[in-house]
Amino acid sequence: MLDLSYVRSQFPALSGEWAFMDNAGGSQVLKSVADRVSDYLLTSNVQTGASYAPSQESTRRVGESRNAFARFMNCAPNEIVMGPSTTILIRFLSEAMTGRLQPGDEIILTNVDHEANIGPWLRHEGRGVTVKWWRCDPETFELDLDDLRGLMSERTKLVCVTHASNILGTINPIREIADIAHEAGAELCVDAVAYAPHRAIDVKALDADYYIFSVYKVFGPHHAVMFGKREKLEALDNIYHYFFDKSRVPHKLEPGNINYECAWGSIGAVDYVEELGRQANGSTGRAAIEAGFEAITEQERKLTGKLLDFFQSRNSVRVIGRATDAPAERVSTVSFTVENTDSAAVVEAVDRHHIGIRFGDFYARRIVEEHGLLGNHGVVRVSMIHYNTEAEVDRLIQALEPSL
């Protein structure tokens, strides 16, 4: 069980009057993260790679960030690429795959993904690469693995999919998808932005080739991390200066250098989850990360269950996605529409109660457009994480009731 008093004390913004339930757009930031960012800027703000001592310290700190996220994702530090956002990192990855994608090759995309894992790949159509669409069921919004199998061919080079939908909250079976892709000789690129704040990540068990998330959704600064299997990263094109050869990983994929202070600050988010695990069962390191997320999962399950129970008691509410709080099935991001009611009006009524939720398409525009949800300003999304409380859910329910 989480010590919620401890948890909330680590996020200064939570001491105010607002309840933050727009966390899929960006979580609140740990004080330890902000302190680390400040410390870097004020004590070691020099370029890495030089021989003098402050530069050596800066180099060490950036390396420590790779070590921390290797622990967080269960991979090697030299398989960690960093950048400003998931959107940018996937664009970098797409550019770096140019030499490997030839006319006639195929990429499979889903219509449930955030546009960050769609738009960069569509650019290859202009070079003769074929894009195939793995579309969800129009009634259930589910992706069918048999549909994916039917799309695969000997020309398929890449499958792109989200681990958890930032609208549906649905958790997709990444290991099964990886097995299908690899059996056909293709690679798998996973957008994990909507998953990473909620569950422990084990890229070895998932067997994805590329796995990306944004740290500002995981209690940290505007920073992002991409795992890539070492041999896959080495095979990518160099997108940095011409004198970086293809073996120079990860730097050939980090043009312009990364944000050093954000890299150093982000370690605070990993340390925080480890501390939750230590408090839970006395573990350390990777085991503590897993234990920390087990505690996070249970807290979020309770929040999700309370909210879904309320929605299911209202005939006017349509939950978009799975109406279950089962941790294996979904994360604590819940989207809905209200019959004959504009989603913007629902959210604006809640705003007056100092509760932050949101309406729209959340850059997953295709699923919203294709399923007739764009009218009435899209869907209403409530995205909770572990620092939210059951009392805050009760506040939200009271604020929503007049609109439902």
From TrEMBL:
Keyword Protease: no
UniProt KW keywords: Pyridoxal phosphate
InterPro entries: Aminotrans_V_dom, Cys_dSase-rel, PyrdxlP-dep_Trfase, PyrdxlP-dep_Trfase_major, PyrdxlP-dep_Trfase_small
Location of the Aminotransferase class V domain: 20-396
Superkingdom per UniProt: Bacteria
Protein name as it appears in the record: Cysteine desulfurase-like protein
Organism listed in the record: Mesorhizobium liriopis
